[in-house]
Fold this sequence. Notes:
The chain is α+β, with helices and mostly antiparallel strands. The chain contains 10 helices and 12 strands. α4 (154-204) runs parallel beside α5 (220-293), α5 packs antiparallel against α6 (298-325) and α6 runs parallel beside α9 (443-453). It holds the Pfam family HATPase_c. It catalyses: ATP + protein L-histidine = ADP + protein N-phospho-L-histidine. The chain crosses the membrane at residues 7-29, 166-188.
Amino acid sequence: MFRSLRLTLVLSMVVPLMIFSGVAIYVGLGAVERNLNDRLREDLELVARAVSGPLSQAMSDGDEIVLGESLKSIFRIGRVFGASVFDEDGQQIASLGVADSDVTRSDSAERAIASGKLDGAFRRVDGMSVFSQFTPLIAPDGRIQGLLQVTRKRSDFHELVASSRIWAVSIWSAVSLMVILVVVLGHYGAVGRHVSRLLELMERMAPGRWQIDGHPAGPRELRQVHEGLQDMGARMAAAENEIRESVERERELSEQLKYQEKVAMIGRVAGGVAHELGAPLNVIQGRANILGRGELADSDRRHLRDIEHQVERMTLIIQQLLDCFRHVPDSRRETDLAATVRELTARACDEPKCHGVEICTDIPDVNAGVLAEPTRLEMACLNLVRNACQAAQSRVIVSVIPLDGYWELRVDDDGPGIDDSLRERIFEPFFSTRAAGEGTGLGLAVVGSVIKEHGGRIEVGRSTDGGCRMSTFWPVYEKRVESTEAHHES
């Protein structure tokens, strides 16, 4: 209903409380005023009763001196504004101060004479509001022989009440302001600042920023709200991470499916090409061997060697193409990556592509177990070393390093390195940074294909020698964990 908790608190609690207290004060002051009026009337009655006896005797005796002195004594007894004595016909006999000169038309005087009891009322005398008290004067024989009128100014009745009312209103106003101030400041100190902090935290909550820092503060209810927000933020963050991971898994599965479909299609094409070209190449190779047995001129023999070289090159391209896109049955088993790399680096030193290049190894003497198809694993690692040897000037460093659930096979060379713009393309089939005829452009494509088959990844960077660094990451194979999971599944 209201825009702020503070305003709601003031309007719904403080204002009604102040209204109720103001009404209570008003009613209380009315009661005090009535009690004070009764007290003042009683005072006048006491004064009138005190002098009614002497006045009655003085009227019976006709003693004007005693009558005058008795009237004077009224002013000495209390705060009296005026006093008069009237006979039974309502005619004034004696008077002091401000009083009526004729009461023949006064209802209060008539009631007092008729009943023989005191009576009085507020009335105006000489333009001034006074309280007029009439007291019957009884003769010795019991007859009402006159009336005593004692008057007192109305202001005497109400000065104290008015003063009390002013003080009450002032105190009530001051207390109301103090209560509102205390409520406002108290609300801010005890509740408001904590609510504002919660609102700020809620405004900052957004995708990727669900976690709420800080400790709960304030009253118990607000601490519970803060804890509830923290719990909700944690659940939202967990749900967001789960959705992100699910989307990432679906994307990876989609990419893997597309890749497998692409590999299957290219594999079928490559198989067909290999089958169609294999027979003609074998014929060419056979005829070249036959011609080489005869007597030929040097120029003819040179041409024959060129034919044989190109046939071997075409055969190598077909074989690498088949290696890159051939569908291999899943015959993976636990394989020691460190032992595999150690063996192939020893063989690589004798290969023509690695002549003149020093191959250094940093391979730990541990079982670097990975789940892999040994032949495909060896082919990928060998292609990495061959590629580094072809790019290196003098040295290649091969390392096997454990890293966060992976075995990293790192191959560094001191060659010219690979441009950042080309690092994504070097794994494409038939792409090569070397001059035409110096490479098939399928070596790294084979590496990329094998690493994807085994759920790893490959990164290209710069080595400490300034050349290229190829890092392949193979998931660590933990036999005991898999055995336990297989036991649970069964």
